[in-house]
Amino acid sequence: MSSVTVSVAQAASREDEREPEVLNTVFALDDVSVLYSGNPAVEGVSMDIAARHITGLIGPSGCGKSTLLRCFNRMNDLIPGAAVRGKVTYHGQDLYDAKVDPVEVRRRIGMVFQRPNPFPKSIYDNVAYGPRIMGRRKGLDDVVQQSLTRAALWDEVKDKLKQNAYALSGGQQQRLCIARCVAVEPEVILMDEPCSALDPIATARIEDLMAELKQDYTIVIVTHNMQQAARVCDMTAFMTTDTTESGARVGRLVEFDATERIFTNPSDPRTEGYITGRFG
Question: Is 3 among the domain residues?
């Protein structure tokens, strides 16, 4: 199947033509493929990601959602044998240009992982860690408070900032990881199934938080939860797997559109089949 390109400006404008920011493309992917040791895991993905929107990546296990997500901040560089082909631009800059510093990329494009991964440090030191690494020494108290407030955690932990982060609940730890992410002032937050290890109440808190964060950040989220994608995402990309002539399985983008259209009137029968539970 050929790569699918949908203009995020056209698709999002169907939802709300009054929003001027839908025209501001943060990422543009052009025929992006990811290979591991020469074997393709994802092929031919083309799409645009809009500023201050939540874009969801959905699809069955093994279709390459997390692999694609890692292209946005060059995390695949850390995997031996991984190679990215095609073009990924960030505000028009080729992210994979030899002159681009991947460390700076990951500062600007933060990531929250599937399971909470706080450092074995105090709550305060978890949030202050990134700014300290970047050389900041003054105003850390303000950074910590502002970051925890943005992560909707300040009121719960303001009296126990010296407590070990491991003492927090799973949902609190995940919000702490979000606070740690925003403390270095990224523009984009990538989330790889951030609620899969959480209970429904903690999941609802994270979803509410995402809705607040998108006022200031561009968010791209991988989720297996169809209801979650429908609730929080402005745009949704559906991916699936194809079998190549050699018998290998490779992830491909089926369609990318406004979330409401994906869930109510998808253009591809495979999308409808997945969303209605007939396969996947």
Answer: no
